[in-house]
Amino acid sequence: MRSPVLPRLAVALALLLPLPLAAAPAASQQAAAATSPRQVIDTLDQALLDVMKNADSLGFQGRYQKLAPVLDQVFNLPLMARISVGPDWASLKPDQQQKIVDVFRRFSITTYAARFAGYNGEKFESAAATSVTGGDQVVATKLVMANGGAVALNYRLRANGPSWQIIDVYLNGTISQLANYRSDFGATLRSGGGDGLVKMIESKIVELTPKK
């Protein structure tokens, strides 16, 4: 079975990714009521370990199918799409906004399914949640390699009704996923509009999807 290495997983986590913008897919409504921020992260970590351990037997499509309902549950993907676009979001038509939400969701799931494609004794370690401004919570996590190396992560979560969902990921504890996206997406949106942004994200999905 293929073994992920530290740089590969770092890229995966950097690529991955606050008020719902549209109705989330049905699976995202299955989040348990009053789930704590730490439990949300544990749910994600367990799902990632499962697909890593069974990566070859599942294949890309199997990993995608297993991860999709979990990511819908633990991430507020519509909100993350909106924040990734930034202030220009308000200038988009409702149908364009929905297309961006949809393609952003598929991009996020594809990224995880493509990158978490092997296992070599890795494990996740998470700390207790801490409160930050605005009522959000942050859970610090490390993906620890068998050789002792580690990828440090901070997950920022926000209450969404009775549940908590991830709204940003900070690689190495400080690098915001959404800030990276905003820089990338903003330039494309200004030059190509909403349709151009959808095409750009679609191209990223194609690049990540294994060729048969």
UniProtKB/TrEMBL annotation:
Keywords: Signal. Transmembrane segments: none annotated. It comes from the Bacteria. Pfam families: MlaC. Residues 1-23 form the signal peptide. This is Phospholipid transport system substrate-binding protein. It comes from Inquilinus ginsengisoli.
